[in-house]
Write a structure and sequence with these properties.
Blueprint lengths: L4 H8 L11 H38 L7 H56 L14 H50 L7 H28 L8 E4 H19 L2 E5 L6 E4 L1 H17 L6 E7 L8 E8 L17 E2 L2 E2 L17 H11 L3 E5 L7 E8 L3
Helix pairs in contact: 2-3, 3-4, 4-5, 5-8, 6-7, 7-8
Length: about 400
């Protein structure tokens, strides 16, 4: 019978090593056992080499009479055997006790690691509710368990954001797509002529789609803390003036007053100036859209006080429509409008920048990325609104 190359490789292949298949507990036990055996063997060898000479030296110094070679040999053998039996018994007992302790310690350390592996495996399979318990093995393991739990929360948040994004995107795209479809069908059925008005309608709907997709991308990046920030010490008054200067022409065109009330140079904050200005622009844009002609909007900068929390406040107050106080938390939800959440109504015509219902969502996400807060308050419909942007101040 001829041996095939595969058979030859199977015969000559070296056996797989057993060490890679050992778990962490077994490896820790083997390492501790090796330490115990090495220490016990070293103790035994050194004792047998040193003890007889020391014993004989003590006999001679004690004034013992000269012993015959036979008696000396017998005495040395007796001492060596007694030392060997005593050390062997003690070493064996100590090795058994140390092995038991090593097994318990190895098991205590390996068990939490196995639990963490199970938790991370569940996270990898999309089960983001998996939690790692504190193994109580010191701050390092506690920090590891906390990091795994935080990872699970972040993954859960990202998954919720993704689902809401897809749901909101589908809801918001439905209206412009339906409008485009109806216009194209009307042109195809010769109901509408292919003139400049029809082309303008199609162009407007395409521009709305582009704007909506860009806004969705912006809010998603902001909510998932993927903004690239370059924080630098910046006067808060400068931020207010920059934002007001951008939208001042639109406010004038709408017949709405806009004023910045702040001292110079004012408090300093460590922020990404461009991002905070973007957040202020979104808040001012919201005020512009909800303040009627003849109204007034004020941007006020309040410096830090002497309390324990030194913060700077950028306050935007308007004399516009206001809102029911219970709606304040809802204003920062994606696509929420006063008429109801995720309203499918087209954006109101006006000089503002957004209108897709996510300007305040982006603003809050930017402020959160700077470890600040953005809150809204109103005394009721028709009584204006106040938005307070709070940032840590530099003392």
């Amino acid at each position: 019978m001829t041996e095939t190359p595969d058979d030859a490789r199977a015969v000559t292949a070296p056996p797989r090593s057993w060490w890679p298949r050992l778990g962490l507990g077994s490896r820790l036990f083997a390492a501790m056992a090796l330490v115990v055996v090495t220490g016990a063997g070293t103790l035994l060898v050194v004792s047998l080499l040193v003890a007889p000479a020391v014993f004989t030296n003590h006999l001679s110094r004690a004034g013992a009479p000269d012993l015959s070679p036979a008696v000396t040999t017998h005495v040395n053998m007796a001492f060596t055997q007694a030392t060997l039996i005593a050390l062997g018994t003690g070493t064996l007992t100590a090795a058994v006790a140390a092995g038991l302790v090593a097994w318990l310690v190895a098991r205590r350390i390996a068990s939490p690691v196995s639990d963490l592996a199970v938790v991370t495996g569940r996270l990898a399979n999309g089960l983001y509710d998996a939690k790692a318990a504190d193994p109580r093995l010191g701050p390092e393991f506690t920090a590891l368990a906390a990091s795994v739990n935080e990872l699970g929360e972040q993954l859960s948040t990202s998954e919720d954001t993704r689902r809401r994004l897809l749901s909101d995107l589908g809801h918001q795209l439905r209206t412009p797509i339906a409008s485009l479809e109806a216009t194209v069908e009307a042109v195809g059925d010769h109901v509408l002529p292919m003139d400049d008005d029809t082309l303008a309608t199609l162009t407007d709907q395409v521009a709305r789609l582009h704007r909506l997709v860009a806004d969705i991308e912006s809010v998603s990046r902001a909510e998932e803390r993927q903004l690239a920030l370059n924080p630098q010490p910046t006067p808060a008054t400068e931020l207010a003036h920059r934002a007001a200067a951008v939208l001042l022409p639109q406010f004038r065109a709408a017949g709405i007053g806009l004023e910045v009330r702040a001292s110079e140079p004012g408090p300093t904050v460590v922020v990404d100036a461009d991002r905070i200005v973007e957040a202020l622009l979104n808040v001012l844009d919201n005020a512009l859209r909800h303040t009627p002609a003849g109204g007034f909007v004020v941007v006020r900068v309040d410096g830090p006080t002497n309390d324990d929390r030194a913060v700077t406040r950028l306050v935007v107050e308007d004399t516009g429509e206001g809102f029911v106080p219970d709606q304040a938390p809802l204003l920062f939800q994606r696509f929420y409008r006063a008429a109801g959440p995720t309203s499918a109504a087209p954006a109101e015509a006006g000089p503002g920048r957004h209108g897709s219902g996510i300007g305040l969502t982006i603003a809050r996400a930017i402020v959160d990325a700077h470890h600040g807060t953005l809150n809204a308050h109103s005394d009721g419909p028709g009584r204006g609104a106040t938005f307070t942007l709070t940032l840590p101040a530099v003392r």
